[in-house]
Amino acid sequence: MKNIAIFASGTGSNATKIVAHLKNHASIKVALIISNKATAPVLQMAATNNIPTLLLHRQDFYNTENLLTNLAEYKIDFIALAGFLWLIPPYLVQAFENKIANIHPALLPKYGGKGMYGMNVHKAVHANKEKESGITIHFVNEHYDEGNIIFQASCPIDPQDDPSIIQKQVLVLEHQYFPTIIESLLLM
Fold first, then answer.
1. Of these residues, 21, 104, 122, 175, which one is catalytic?
2. How far, in Å, are 13, 24, 51, 57, 116 from residue 48 at the CA level?
3. Does the annotation count 143 as an active-site position?
4. Which among 32, 87, 95, 103 could bridge 5 via Cys, Cβ 3.0 to 4.6 Å?
């Protein structure tokens, strides 16, 4: 059995899709949900699905390697970042080299980097009158959105589409592809 941890900072819609996709899977289990916000709705989703949770504190996350002990306790083999907004520290990247995947709501290398998340991305795509947007699933390294690309999918943008419409179109792609790509990475 391969155990995964999902890191999320907010509502956890991608985390919810991953949990649903892997529920009762023969060889993959979501063993832990980790958040950096005590009020994040993703923690309630975890409780509803009887998945253990862990709350990260910034000082501990960046200044100690205690998280590695927690991940070892749950026998974590892989980490999925599903709307987790903190930069992953080098010790964690090194311990899970090519075993941390992130989903980004744009076609990298465009619209990536610090501060480029959520609606910030969709507003930038709209402001630049892009004809398409999409998702990028990539491995995580020590820099925001610079890890090796695993998968991309795109959607056309109509000139009349505002950032909220772009966001909805991109979210459909996120929910469609992220769970299956995570599964395929773990079955390799």
1. 104
2. 14, 15, 8, 23, 31
3. no
4. 32
